[in-house]
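EI: anyone free to look at a 207-residue chain?
SC: sure, send it
EI:
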Amino acid sequence: MADAYPDYDVLAKWDSPSWNDKTRQVIGDRLRIGEGAPRFLDRGRWATLCALADHVVPQPRGRPAIPVAAMIDARLVEGIGEGFRHKHMPRLREAWPLGLAAIETEAKRFGAPSFAELTPAAKDRLLAAMRDGKLKSRAWGGMAPERFFRDRIVGELVTSYYAHPSAWSAMGFGGPASPRGYVRLEPGIADPWEAVAAAPGRTRHGR
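SC: here you go
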């Protein structure tokens, strides 16, 4: 699929009226995620998380890579949860190490010594079985695999990906826009300072 915003870079707004000092601080901190990772997970679970992130949210060509696994690891270091927890899910810092170890155990049933070594099709089958609640290994330690898929894999891997400025640039999103704010919120209508999608074969700059 062609990039609709091939030369748009949301970071060009750094000194524009769109972002204030607090916004720049938050975005700057996010751009530094990945330095020194992993800081929470051990090397084995980190390798599993990287392979999982690469499969679930593959990186687009021509854009800076988004450190999805490092964003999860950073969240674990900070211990920031969602403020609630499903009764069949352990706390965040327990769920990820347990789930990643269980995925490695399940990978052997799907034909490889590790998740990273599974074929793409086998990875899909494993994740589909997890989603559908068909994984029954004791390695899950009582945690529901389908809740891990929904709350951690989809709920965190995907949202972490789209919380990064590189993803904002790829989809023409102007970021938090604080203090400027968005005014035209109706579907298909954009504020005049937002990115404009390129016509086929052309490039367009957002403001």
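EI: Residues 201-207 have pLDDT under 50 and may be disordered.
SC: 👍
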